Structure formats: C-alpha cells, structure tokens
Amino acid sequence: MITKSKILDFQKSVVIAIGFMLFTIDSHAAIDGITGTVFNLSARADHLSTPDGGSVLFWSYAETSKTTGQYPGPTLIVNEGDVVTVNLSNELDVPVSVVFPGQGLITTVPSGDNPGLLTEEVLPGGGPVAYTFTAANPGTYTYHSGTRMELELEMGLVGALIVRPLMGAGIGFAYNHADTQFDSEFLFLLTDMDPGIHLQVESGDMDSVDFSGRFPNYWFINGRAAPDTMKPVNSELLPKQPYNCLPRMHPGDRMLLRIAGGGADLHPFHHHGNHSRVIARNGRMLSSSPGAGADMSNREFTIQSVPGQTVDSIFEWTGEELGWDIYGHQPEDPLEPFEYAADHGKVLPTVEPDAKDLVFGPFFSGSPYLGSSGPLKPGDGGFNLNNGIVFMWHSHNEREMVNRGIFPGGMMTMLIIEHPSVVINP
Ligand SMILES: [Cu+2]
User: Fold this and answer.
1) Cα 323 to averaged position of ligand 1 atoms, centre (Å)
2) Plastocyanin-like domain: which residues (predicted)?
C-alpha cells in the first residue's frame, strides 16, 4: 500500500537524488551488454554507489580490458548454436570460478589452476581459465561463481546470459516460435545485498562471516537501487553500474521481460498496469510438445523470481477494461492504434479533485489522459516529458523498496506508457 505521505517522500527523495540533473529519458528497447563468442573477464574488487550516498566493496566479473569492476557482471549476449568461451582471470585473493546454469557440456582449459573439481577454479592472481560451452538453447540465463557461492554471489560475482534464437535474425523473438515475438525487451536481474558482510570482507575478516545472520539492506535491478534504476544507461555518476532499467512502451507493444534471480532471496516482482504472460522458465519455453509454442503459458499478477532461476514474460497494455477512454476522446474521434474500442469515447468515471488538493509527484503530467497535460503546481511534474501514463514496477515484498530502511528505493523502477506518436529509441 502506497500512502500519500510515502508518495510525498518519494517525490522529495527523487528530487534530492537527481534534482541537480536535467532529467533525460534514455531507455533502450534493447538490452545493454556485450556480444560475441569470446569474452575475457576478470574477477575484480571495486566499490559501487548506493542512492543514499553509500559506497560498498563488491567483487565482479569485469571486462579484462577495462580498469574498473562492474555490478553485475556484463550481460553476455550470444546466438543459439554459438560455441562460447569465457576466459576468466582472477585479481582477487580468493579462488573463483564461473558456472553457466542451463548450459550443457562445459569444458575448461586450465592453466595450472585448481583441477579436479566440478568446475575448474581460478586461483588468486591466476588464470585465465577458459570455460567453453555450446549455447544450444535460446533463453534467459545467469552465470555466477561456483566457488564458495554463498559469499561470492553476495559479493557480486553474477551476471546474465542471453541466448538469442535462430528465428528472427537475432532480435524480435525470445524462442523459436511466433508466440515469443516481442517489440521491445528489458532485463531485470534482481539481486540483494547485506552491506555488513561486505564491510566484514573489506576489513579482512571474511572467514568469520556468518550467513545465518545475513540481513540484506539493499536491493537492485541490473545493479542499481531506486531511484538510480531510472538514471541513463552508462551514467557518469554510476561508473561501476552501467545498466539501467526504465521500460517505455506504446499501447499494444509486446514487451519481453527477462527476469533473473541473481541474489540469495526470492523476490515477488510486481508489474503494475496489467498481468503479463509467462512464456518460459529457466530458458525453456512453456510448451506441451515440440512445435506447440508457449501453449502452457500462464498469466501472472506478480512474477515470483527464485534465486538462480529465470522467467520470460510478455507484458502488454492498451488500457483495456479500464472502463474509460485513455485518450479522452469524443465518440466521433478516430481510434488510436491498438485502442480498446469498447471504451472509446467513455468519460473518466470520477470527478477529478481540485489540483490544490492533490500531491502529484514528478511523474504526473497533470492529466489522466495519454499524451495530454494539465495544470500542475509549481515544482510538480517534470519527469514525464511526453505526458505518458506511468506505473511503478517493484518488489511486492515492500521491505525491499528501501535503501537501508529509507523508502523509497531498492528494487523499484517505473514503466512509462507513451502516446503512439512518441518515438522510443531503439
Ligand atoms: Cu478513444
């Protein structure tokens, strides 16, 4: 339940957090990451930023060619059938490794490091160890350390792997079936963090970390906690956390949500605005038989994201069944693309309160209608450049919508529905 005072707090905190920046909308309809078949990664320590001004030690899979760490590790984007090699070096003072859940027949080429384990380890200062697998199945996956996992996952050794299907020339389908067509896609790699453990590691006391007392206080989407989730991709204010998560779409678009559980806890990820249709779990289409498509798909109100697992879901929104015309049309006006015709020309079934009796927040345009604006009090609005309709998307475990106990923050971002005439950058 979001109360009026919480919304006021939210407004204040967003203004404090990014009030000095010109708010620019920079969301991509594609997923940021690195492509290819050979990836050179280094396990590396660095510090990340939290929206409350904190700095936390983390360990990451960073691109070897760069000088900093990255939280989470780079999103690896490959094509079905690729033979993928990850060359892992280790700049940390503990052994590390990388495992690829959902990929078969992983072979490793060691270079004098810890052999004989389920997964080859890279010793401190060692490597590279080459991990090679064939990306046989399209879908959404994670990769993470297979060494002392409870600690190394907590510290940040995790990333997402996307395998694009042969169908659709690399983009536009999640799997090899028309049911999985999408117009835009977004990654939601969900992680949780107990900064106390990171402090203990930083003070050289990692061997006495007691995971039975783990108490997460930060929650991230793609490595950022709100409101940083809404800052631009590659924001210079967040050099170690390059990925954002600010979905935008038009009515009628099919948006693919790739939701990956990258932490230690379960997160109920709630997308306001509509249910979505879950088409795949763990990189496997929900299909009753080969060729049947996503015929076992189901609609969900909230996506239960389980640690180590992934969900692919298609989200659509047209305003259907709201019972009023989202454009504020008169009955004689033409229909907009994908408009829910049964509500065309229907008036808003409520009396709008007087503006001076409302708290709007920065995302309200002053009008309930898509593409329209209305009067706002000085200081209100300003974050909704095209007069879209905005929905909060967040963990429905609302304790996870904070930064160290202060609402709002954590695992939260906004979906912006844009008027059909608004161009959304590819
Ligand atoms: Cu209409």
Assistant:
1) 11
2) 67-165
Beta partners for residue 346, in sequence order: none
Instruction: Give me ligand 1 centre to Cα 346, in Å.
Output: 8
> What spacing in Å lies between the alpha carbon of 374 and ligand 1's midpoint?
19
**CATH homologous superfamily for 34-177?**
Cupredoxins -  blue copper proteins (2.60.40.420)
CA distance 113 to 221: 34
Distance 230 CA to ligand 1 centre (A): 30
SS (H, E, C) 159-209: EEEEEECCCCCCCCECCCCHHHECCEEEEEEEEEECHHHHHHHHCCCHHHC
Domain ranges of the chain: 34-177
pLDDT in tens, the chain (426 residues): 334 344 444 444 443 333 333 344 444 557 999 999 999 999 999 999 999 999 999 999 999 999 999 999 999 999 999 999 999 999 999 999 999 999 987 777 766 566 666 678 899 998 899 999 999 999 999 999 999 999 999 999 999 999 999 987 656 999 999 999 999 999 999 999 999 999 999 999 999 999 999 999 999 999 999 999 999 999 999 999 999 999 999 999 999 999 999 999 999 999 999 999 999 999 999 999 999 999 999 999 999 999 999 999 999 999 998 999 999 999 999 999 999 999 999 999 999 888 778 777 888 898 999 999 988 888 888 889 999 999 999 999 999 999 999 999 999 999 999 999 999 976
Q: Which residues place a Cβ less than 5 A from the ion ligand 1? A: 325, 327, 329, 344
